[in-house]
Design goal:
By secondary structure, the protein is α+β, with helices and mostly antiparallel strands. It is 46% helix and 12% strand. The chain is built from 12 helices and 4 strands; from the N terminus they run ααβααβαααβαβαααα.
Length: 256
């Protein structure tokens, strides 16, 4: 494999970091590479908050489902789906008057803009992941940043058209870290030719066999298979209900 493919294939979610601050030079390399990510119409519908303050990072470890490893990260990047900047810019450009003069309907940000900005934001975040990895800096995505919206909105002065969609903890790999890659599903269940394929019962049994085989029969969730186990840990868990509540509040703010 070439160097790029090696970085992509050897990357792992890192939750333990070397006790070393990320250098300004490495941070600038990561941010520069992040901003080279593809973007819809080159509008760059995102903003990035660089979080170094230890108290803020500690607070994030609490608001993001009480995950202690977050508090130990030397650096956090907060990725924001951002339509505020373009909304303000269009106002600056007298867009409503322009629409009147040209017999056009003026429309503010809508759900389509939200989806597009989320797409832009996460593409940029993945560029940050790979750039960091190439520098020996590991990362972990934290989707729980979508929880406790009101707290994060106040904490980071977020306008209504700005939505925290992704968060990365970053830190250098410890010297004693052994790479441990998690398994992935067989490609035939994920990649299809020309059109979508619904999976059969037999497909699911084979697709999840390696995970079902690892389930402890005496697990606390009383799960008989991996689907039941993951539902108890994710979709049916309190943090997921909080995430759903927060997202609904975000949508309400977004559509004002």
């Amino acid at each position: 494999m070439n160097e790029t493919l090696e970085v992509l294939n050897n990357r792992m979610s890192l939750r333990r970091y070397k006790e070393k601050e990320i250098t300004d030079e490495d941070l600038e390399r990561i941010l520069h590479s992040t901003m080279r990510a593809p973007s819809a119409g080159n509008m760059m519908l995102y903003s990035i908050l660089v979080i170094k303050d230890k108290e803020k990072i500690k607070k994030l470890s609490e608001t993001c489902d009480n995950q202690p490893f977050i508090a130990k990260a030397p650096l956090v990047l907060l990725f924001l789906a951002d339509m505020e900047r373009w909304t303000d810019y269009l106002k600056h450009c007298d867009i409503e008057e322009y629409c009147k003069e040209n017999d056009m309907d003026y429309k503010g940000p809508n759900n389509a803009d939200l989806f597009l900005s989320i797409s832009d934001t996460m593409i940029a975040a993945q560029n940050a992941v790979i750039a960091a990895e190439s520098l020996g800096i590991g990362s972990c995505y934290v989707g729980d940043i979508m929880e406790n919206y009101e707290v994060h909105k106040k904490m980071f002065d977020l306008p209504d058209k700005v939505f925290p969609i992704g968060m990365l903890t970053l830190g250098y790999y410890p010297d004693d870290m052994k790479r441990r890659k998690t398994s992935r599903f067989d490609e035939k269940y994920i990649v299809f030719d020309e059109k979508y394929k619904k999976l059969s019962k037999e497909d699911f049994d084979h697709m999840f066999k390696h995970l079902n085989d690892k389930i402890n029969p005496n697990n606390k969730a009383h799960a008989k298979n991996y689907g039941q186990l993951i539902y108890s840990r994710k979709f049916g868990a309190p943090f997921f209900k909080e995430m759903e509540r927060s997202v609904n509040v975000i949508l309400d703010h977004w559509n004002r």
